[in-house]
Design goal:
heterodimer, A: 261 residues, alpha+beta, Beta-Lactamase, 3 domains, 5-stranded antiparallel sheet, two-stranded parallel sheet, 59% helix, 16% strand, B: 117 residues, mainly alpha, Arc Repressor Mutant, subunit A, 3-stranded antiparallel sheet
Chain lengths: 261, 117
C-alpha cells in the first residue's frame, strides 16, 4: 500500500509556483522526489526540516528569477539596445536643437516688439504718424538695423524707414487681415526672394488707425541657425559612432562571458 | 553563443559553493538529485546544505552552460541521473587549482596552523 504523503509535501508542491515557469515545468517532479527522500532520511525534527526546506525554496526562487531576468537581458541582442538608445538620443538631441532654434528665432523679434508697441501707442493717442516716425533710410536687403513703417487702414504704406530699391514694400494683405482681427502678429516677411525679415505688425487704433510694422533682417539669426544645425548634425554623427563602437565592444565582451552565467 | 565554441574554463571562476559541490559530487559518478544533495552536505563534499530549489536551479543553469548533462537514465523511482561533461571537468579542475593556490598562500601566512587536513 502506498504510504500517505505528509501534508507539508503538498504545501511544498503548491509553493513551487514561486519558481520561474520554465524551471518549474522542467524540474518540479525531480524536486519533489528529492524532497520526499530527504524527508525520509532527515536527521532533524520535522519542524526544523520544513523550515530549512521552505527557506531554501523562497531564497532559491528569488535567485532563479534574478538569474532569468539577467539572462533575458543578456540574450537580447546588443543591436536592440543600441538602436533604442540611438532613437532616444536622436529624439532628445533633436528636441534640444529645435528648442535652441526657436529661442534664437524668438530673440530675433526684439527690439521690434517694443518698437511696435511704442509707435502704435503714440499714433493711437492722436499723434500724426509722420511726426512720430523719425526720418531715416534702412536698406532692408543689406542693413541689419531695425526699421519701422506705418500702413493705413487699407494697407497702403505711409511714413517709414524700411526700403527696398528706394521704395517702401507692403506685406501680403492676409497679414493685415489677421492683425485686424487679432491685434498683432509676429511674422517672417520675405519682401524679396532671399531677403527675410523678423517682423512685428501691430494694429493702431484711434483717429489715425492703421498698422505699424517693425522689422529687422534675419540674416545673422539665420547664420546662427545654420551653425547650430551643423553642430547638431556633427554631434549626432559623433554620438552615433560612439554608440556603434561601444556596441561592438559590448557584443564581443558578451560573447566571452555568456556561458559564465 | 554557438555550441561549437568552447569557452575558457577560467571565465566561469570562481564557482559558487553550490556549483562546486555539485561538480565535485558528479566527478566520481553519475548521480540523481538527492544523491548529489547528500554528498554535497558531507564535509568532504564541501559541506553545502542545499534544498531541492537550490540544487535544481543550479543544475538547470549548469546544464545550459554545458557543465553537466542528463544521462537519459531514469530509475524505478523515476529519478533522473546527471553526469559531469568534459567541459565541466575542466572547470572543476581549474577551480580546484585556484583553491589550491589560495590554500598555499594561507599556509605560507600561517593561517592553516592547528587546522587538521
Amino acid at each position: 500500500m502506498k504510504a500517505r504523503q505528509p501534508r507539508m509535501l503538498l504545501f511544498y508542491r503548491s509553493a513551487l509556483v514561486f519558481y520561474p515557469r520554465r524551471l518549474r515545468l522542467a524540474h518540479q517532479e525531480q524536486m519533489m522526489l528529492a524532497l520526499a527522500e530527504a524527508y525520509r532520511d532527515r536527521a532533524s525534527t520535522p519542524p526544523r526540516f520544513w523550515l530549512h526546506a521552505f527557506a531554501d525554496l523562497f531564497e532559491s526562487s528569488v535567485t532563479e528569477h534574478l538569474f532569468m531576468l539577467r539572462e533575458h537581458t543578456l540574450q537580447k541582442p546588443v543591436a536592440f539596445y543600441t538602436a533604442t538608445l540611438a532613437v532616444i538620443l536622436t529624439i532628445l538631441g533633436g528636441a534640444a536643437a529645435i528648442t535652441m532654434q526657436q529661442m534664437l528665432r524668438g530673440g530675433a523679434n526684439q527690439p521690434q516688439i517694443d518698437m511696435a508697441e511704442w509707435y502704435a501707442s503714440e499714433i493711437g493717442s492722436g499723434e500724426a504718424p509722420g511726426n512720430v516716425i523719425p526720418p531715416g533710410y534702412v536698406d532692408m536687403e543689406r542693413s541689419l538695423q531695425p526699421f519701422v513703417i506705418f500702413y493705413d487702414d487699407h494697407g497702403k504704406p505711409g511714413p517709414g524707414t524700411g526700403y527696398i530699391d528706394q521704395a517702401i514694400p507692403t506685406p501680403p494683405a492676409g497679414v493685415f487681415d489677421f492683425v485686424r482681427s487679432h491685434g498683432s502678429e509676429n511674422v517672417t516677411w520675405q519682401p524679396r526672394p532671399g531677403v527675410r525679415m523678423a517682423s512685428v505688425v501691430k494694429r493702431v487704433g484711434g483717429k489715425g488707425s492703421g498698422f505699424i510694422l517693425a522689422g529687422r533682417s534675419l540674416r545673422v539669426v539665420e547664420e546662427q541657425e545654420g551653425l547650430l544645425r551643423r553642430m547638431a548634425f556633427g554631434g549626432w554623427i559623433a554620438v552615433m559612432l560612439l554608440l556603434i563602437g561601444g556596441a561592438a565592444l559590448l557584443n564581443r565582451a558578451q560573447r566571452n562571458r555568456q556561458v559564465a552565467a | 553563443m554557438g555550441k561549437n565554441s568552447t569557452p575558457d574554463p577560467g571565465t566561469l571562476l570562481p564557482l559558487s559553493a553550490a556549483v562546486f559541490s555539485i561538480l565535485l559530487a558528479l566527478a566520481g559518478s553519475e548521480k540523481h538529485g538527492y544523491a548529489i544533495m547528500k554528498e554535497a552536505s558531507l564535509p568532504e563534499g564541501g559541506g553545502v546544505s542545499m534544498g531541492p530549489g537550490t540544487l535544481y536551479g543550479s543544475l538547470d543553469r549548469m546544464m545550459r552552460s554545458g557543465l553537466v548533462e542528463e544521462t537519459g537514465f531514469t530509475d524505478n523511482e523515476r529519478r533522473r541521473y546527471y553526469r559531469i561533461t568534459k567541459f565541466g571537468s575542466q572547470v572543476l579542475s581549474a577551480e580546484t587549482s585556484r583553491l589550491n593556490h589560495v590554500m598555499s598562500a594561507a599556509r605560507r601566512k600561517g593561517i592553516m596552523e592547528g587546522v587538521r587536513s
